[in-house]
């Protein structure tokens, strides 16, 4: 089955700095790559996603890059703010067959932004 | 807020008991997926329901079962509870299969098995 590795497990930055979280996956047929933010006591919130036919996508301070050849993708947060502090999860989906809805998640990254 | 609502928010059960968790999907979404999130880990796929039928299943035993109703709401049932079933159970809804892959999660039900 699909295996997703996420690094680092914890990340501490100063307000205004950039933060980068990386994920690698094993199934080359995977074709949808979302990122989720989870705050304490809440469910994961979709913050950005990318499909396999796109190399980069940006939404204000958040961007995701995908390298299909190397099977890795990254989340970039610029100008971090204290409210960005949360647990971030990458996930991978392979469309088709029996895999509908089956996101495989990374282990999570605890991001702390210090004022 | 995603519009996905789950109940109850917290639940305490003892080993061997049975539990039913409920989920109302976001308006317009007809597909519901269930995930289990153990403390400090990423969510793990349990199964998905589409048009009231199970549409895919992860590595969970048969004592994990579900239902989807004509209004697209869903239930997760767990029989013969074990201590390791203690986790946050998340429901996610999405548009029709093949239309969109975006999953929107509810806030979950925190289940404690004693």
Q: Which structural class best describes the helix and strand composition of chain B?
A: mainly beta
DSSP summary, beta strand count of chain B: 11
Per the principal axes of the C-alpha atoms, what is the gross shape of chain A?
Answer: globular
Largest sheet of chain A: 6 strands, mixed
Report the biggest beta sheet of chain B as strand number plus sense, adding barrel if it closes. 7 strands, mixed
Oligomer classification: heterodimer
- Give the largest interface: A-B, 27 and 30 residues
Q: β content of chain A, as a range?
A: over 45%
Describe the structure.
The complex is a heterodimer of chains A (115) and B (114). Chain A has 115 residues and is mainly β. In chain A, 35% of the residues are buried. Chain A starts with a strand and ends with a strand. In chain A, strands 2, 4, 5, 9, 10 and 11 form a 6-stranded mixed beta sheet that branches. In chain A, strand 4 (32-38) and strand 5 form a beta hairpin. Chain A has no helices and 11 strands. With 114 residues, chain B is mainly beta. Chain B is globular. Chain B starts with a strand and ends with a strand. Classes of the chains: A mainly beta (115), B mainly beta (114). Chain A binds chain B through residues 4, 6, 32, 34, 36, 41-46, 49, 89, 91, 93, 95, 98-108, and chain B through 2, 4, 31, 33, 35, 40-45, 48, 50, 55-58, 90, 92, 94, 97-98, 101-108.
